[in-house]
Amino acid sequence: MSIDTPILSEGGAGGAGGDLVKDTTTQDSMRDVIEASQAVPVLVDFWAPWCGPCRQLTPVLERLVRAAKGAVKLVKLNIDGHPQIPSQMGVQSIPAVFAFQDGRPVDGFMGALPESQVKSFIARLTGDVSADLAAVLEAAEEALAAGDVNAAAQTFGEVLQKDAEKPQAAAGLAKCYIKTGDLVRAEQTLALVPPAKADSAPVASARAMLELARKAPNEGEVDALRAKLAADPQDHQARFDLALALNAKGDREGALEELLSIIRKNRGWNDDAARKQLLQLFEAWGTSDQTAALGRQKLSSILFA
């Protein structure tokens, strides 16, 4: 979000008040936002009664601000009754949240974000990343899963600045590098993990993902490999390569089915390569991944049939 300094109303007498959550008006905005943000960060929630996503976001904001116990305040502004300020700030859609500090807007977001991402936003704003580390890391993981690699990398990096030995943050940052094709920096990031934590689940997942990235065929080979299989359905090597290419493309279900197909037809092919590859995929995808859980069930049903 682009942040520009608005010209808020200078009307409204009285102090900033002690409430952590309050409604404001155009007249009182100088006191409630600009003056109050000299002491603690202030979130301004632009909303309207007809806005469905606003009704989802505002209670989350209120709960998290109160949970912060004074480290941040929330000011709500109904844009229907007070259109001047949102117009000055370039608010084109709601919900929209701007964060003010020392009298100036410093950050913001639009849309009803998941609670974990709102937690991360508040934690970054208050400079208290470590206090809510689990929520911050969860938000980073969600951003990575959604394809927002830059946001995920930024958050993982911030966590590492606070705790250089946090394996989940290092693994997450390494995965960001893998997503962008920078395998060298991914390996360098994983090398920073202390030996005592090198075998942790997040790091093992990142290492497996790195190994897969190194040996995966070019995504453009998918059509060629499908053509080879159409000509010879028993070409297990082509099916194996197709599985890796599909995984590199993000098609986990497709990769799973191709490898399971090899195992069904010839369990021992190439020294049990398909089963071993599946186990590496499961590790790379992580223990909480639904495709990995389904794949383990299907693999077990085949092996123990």
What does this structure look like?
The chain is about 55% helix and about 10% strand. It folds into three domains: about 20-110, Glutaredoxin (3-Layer(aba) Sandwich), CATH 3.40.30; about 125-195, Serine Threonine Protein Phosphatase 5, Tetratricopeptide repeat (Alpha Horseshoe); about 220-305, Tetratricopeptide repeat domain (Serine Threonine Protein Phosphatase 5, Tetratricopeptide repeat), CATH 1.25.40. The model is unreliable at about 1-5 and about 10-20 (pLDDT under 50). A five-stranded mixed beta sheet has the order 1-3-2-4-5, with helices on both faces. The chain has 14 helices and five strands. With about 300 residues, it is an alpha/beta fold.
Strand order, biggest sheet? 1-3-2-4-5
Overall number of structural domains? 3
Q: What is the N-to-C order of secondary-structure elements (H for helix, E for strand)?
A: EHEHEHEEHHHHHHHHHHH
- Rg of Cα set: 25 Å
By oligomeric state, this entry counts as: single chain
Q: What is the top-level CATH class of the largest domain?
A: Alpha Beta
How many strands in all? Answer: 5
Identify the notable features of this structure and list them briefly.
single chain; 305 residues; alpha/beta; Glutaredoxin; Serine Threonine Protein Phosphatase 5, Tetratricopeptide repeat; 3 domains; five-stranded mixed beta sheet; 9% strand
